Amino acid sequence: MNEIEERLRDAFDADAQTVRPDSLRPPPGRDAGLPRPTGGLRRGNWLTPLAAAAAVAAVVVAVAVVVPRIWTGGPAHKPRHQQRHATATRQPRTFLTVTTSPPVIHGDHLLKYQAFTLEKRSAHHGGRLIRVLMRSLGAIDAVVAPDGSVVAVADYGCRSQVFRIDPGTGARRLIRTLPESAQNMALSPDGSKLAYLTYPASDRQPCGPARQPTAPVRYQVNPGGLAQFLPSVVAIVDLATGTGVRAASANPGDPPWSLSWSPDGKTVAAVYSNSVELLSAAHPDFAAARRLRPPSGCGYVASTWTVSGILAVLGCGKQDPALSPRTLIRLSTAGQRTQAWRLPACIDGVHLVVDPTRRYVLVQSDVGYGNGRPCGLRYMTWSARILRVRRDALTAIAVLPLQGGDEPQVTGW
Amino acid sequence: MTGAADTDRARDDPGHAGEIVADLYRAHALTLVRAAKLLLRDQEAAEDAVQDAFLGLYRALPRLRDHDQVLPYLRAAVINRARSVLRSRRRALLRPVHHEPPAGSAEADAMIREDQRAVIIAVAGLPRRAREILVCRYYMGLSDAETAAVLGVSRGTVSSTASRALAALGRDLKEGT
After folding, report:
1. Contact B61, A59 (CB under 8 A)
2. Is A225 left (phi over 0), alpha (psi -120 to 50) or beta?
3. What is the mean pLDDT of residues A164-171?
């Protein structure tokens, strides 16, 4: 064997060792609740008998559920999104964005209202647009439900409509109308309940337009006067019955944000007053909520809840933590920091999205904010960088430009 | 390992097919993921490729008549999936949006020496078929005949491509130093 061959073998072996047996994902379709094999195991004996049993069960499920569908095309009436559910433990191949198109104003007349478009994009091809799922003049928020369908809310101010959309065909069905604004929605792990932010009952919002104007409309700033409060109420509603519970934060000027459900569906987390508040989903109450406090001088900007803990974005700015979110951290439910990732520099906004299995997380970080080098539009393009959270690194899966008025925001995957 | 009786039983019993595939997964998934990572430079994509190969095996197992062909089938499936991923990446590069390669973790970086990294980078610059042949030969430890069967090329092609690839690597690494 010559020297090159020897170096090649040596390099291949060294590179292969970076793939650790304990870091491999479970076999296809495996039950997410079962324990994974842990470290120190060797090739040939690292699958424990329990895991082997799970693998066999997964294989049986895969053979019984996936294969007949692929081969026979599945039952004719089955929506495509339900076929996707069989491989739910693998990371999603697509993500959802809502692109906001700005209003078109000419002088003091408005020619077009602000509009929202819900899009399905590829997570493997730089965010390539696959399908437009919905357009609306009401602000859209959307997530992927556990059955693979998309649940979207169109917020018209005075009311909100909840739709279920088949991501394969774009066919949608109105499943509930809420009598109020609904923002920053989060779907419970079983898909039955919706948590959202709304305004106090004393601050009813005017109804937004449902159609584009057929003639120029005289433009008025805040026609109903300035909104008295921000959406400071967390509401949780049962989508089947419409019944729900709600909790108002103590300070309407400092609204909660970034709602997410615990994997067991018993708790809702919200970023509030620089902390992460853990509210009971059955009886939400900010006074009784458990609070995960940030380190001194810092604040949490966004959070989401995964099966391996709470992921939160931490900022430590002197004036406002939201202006300097630089670190993504993983917290235990006791508030212990267990892992950290460095976010890109020059972030203007940051947003976290978790998939329905509560395993895979996307981070949207809008970069270009700031004045001095290396930040600012003089030195960098203002863009939304979509990052996938991996075990050891943040990987960019797409960079979407933010110039030109249309601004995409990741809402689900 | 599977036997002829096993594959016959798998044809009639999906549960037994599951057991066979679980055994194969236990024995070979790690090696296949590592080989796919050498081709794709991305562990997540490598795991996807291997997962798809095993799902393909569930479907193909009842049709496989020769039980000795199961492992070559898996190797070929993983390499085919890796080719598809590389094709998709090339298409993605043609679009105006950026596609950033994943950054390696600090831990993974620490596990590989500078000279070894130089070899991996030089291999990544070789043509696709050359990379596949080198991975089959020098990571999977396959003979030229086995490599030819997995890649669907002649044995002569394997020898000549490997020889050219080694020569190119030698030049690259010499220039690098």
Report:
1. no
2. left
3. 88
